[in-house]
Amino acid sequence: MKLPSVVSLKHYVAQDRPPAFTRFNLFLRDSFTCQYCTSTDDLTFDHVIPRSRGGRTTWENIVTACAPCNLTKGGRTPHEAHMHPRMKPRRPSAFELQERGRRFPPHHLHESWLDYLYWDIELEA
How far apart are CA 27 and CA 46, in angstroms? Predict the structure, then answer.
């Protein structure tokens, strides 16, 4: 597929709504790092206030957790488990997610996408 070397923006549409709550956006907000131990392996969602205790699936109650930390915390509150997230969970702005995406490790995405998504990342030789 041929692509133009220049793309012209004719109409700017302002981002008027917050980013969608998705697994990828949550992991991006938390820099693909467990919020309890900083591991980057086997990542999952964790409800800070467990669903069994009335916790909801929202930006403000979900953090990225590795599977071992998630299992250790279980259905307990952070206070009960003595496990507190490193950052207070909150809804990110679209700008924050875009900035984090630009710093995203290049080997997490297929190399062919880099020219189209993240222009300031250099690949290792």
Answer: 11
Whether the CA torsion 84, 88, 91, 93 is positive or negative: it is negative
Q: How many CB atoms lie within 10 A of CB 14?
A: 5
CA angle 73, 83, 81 (to 5 degrees): 50
The DSSP-derived string for 53-107 is GT--SSTTTEEEEEHHHHHHHTTS-HHHHT---SS---PPPHHHHHHHHHTS-GG
Tens of pLDDT along 15-55?
Answer: 667 889 999 899 999 999 999 999 999 999 999 999 999 99
DSSP helix/strand/coil, 47? strand
